[in-house]
TrEMBL record:
Protein name: ATP synthase F(0) complex subunit f, mitochondrial
Similarity comment text for this entry: Belongs to the ATPase F chain family.
Source species of the chain: Chrysolophus pictus
Biological function: Subunit f, of the mitochondrial membrane ATP synthase complex (F(1)F(0) ATP synthase or Complex V) that produces ATP from ADP in the presence of a proton gradient across the membrane which is generated by electron transport complexes of the respiratory chain. ATP synthase complex consist of a soluble F(1) head domain - the catalytic core - and a membrane F(1) domain - the membrane proton channel. These two domains are linked by a central stalk rotating inside the F(1) region and a stationary peripheral stalk.
Topology relative to the membrane: Single-pass membrane protein
Record's GO cellular component terms: mitochondrial inner membrane; proton-transporting ATP synthase complex
GO process annotations (BP): proton motive force-driven mitochondrial ATP synthesis
């Protein structure tokens, strides 16, 4: 049996077609609480995928460190070009 279609509100961004993008964006919660909730969900997904694993490695922590290095370089780039 075919699965019933997923409502547009419950679709992930990668599953939304280009013609549905404006409708999908209009259904998002852009209040401060909604934005904080989105960041919290993203952090929890990252933590559970890379940090909280049974047999972990340095992958998750090295990505955070690499991100920190890139952000620090961007912040100080204007001082380096003078």
């Amino acid at each position: 049996m075919a699965q019933p279609p997923v409502p547009l509100k419950d679709m992930k961004l990668l599953d939304v077609k280009l013609g549905q993008l404006s409708t999908w964006l209009a259904m998002r919660d852009f209040t401060p609480g909604g934005i904080v909730g989105a960041f919290r969900r993203g952090y929890e997904r990252y933590y559970n995928k890379y940090i909280n694993v049974k047999k972990g490695g340095l992958g998750g922590i090295s990505m955070v460190l690499a991100g920190y290095v890139v952000v620090s370089y961007i912040w100080s780039y204007s001082h380096l070009s003078k």
